[in-house]
Amino acid sequence: MTTTRKTILESVPLGPRWPCLDPFLFCAHHDDTYPASNGEMGVQAVEFEGREMGSDFSAKDGFSMYHGEPIPGFPGHPHRGFETVTLVRKGRIDHADSLGAAARFGGGDVQWLTAGKGIQHSEMFPLLNSDKPNPLELFQIWLNLPAKNKMVEPHFTMFWNEQIPRVTFSDAAGKKTKVTVVAGALEGVDKTLPPPPESWASEAGSDVAIWTLELEPGARWTMPKAAGAETHRMLYFFQGKSMLVGGEAVKQHLAMHIDAHSDLELVNTGDDTVELLLLQGKPIGEAVSQYGPFVMNTQEEIMQAMQDYRRTQFGGWPWKDNDPVHGAEDRRFARYPGASEDDLPPVVATA
Question: What pTM value is reported for the model?
Answer without folding.
Answer: 0.94
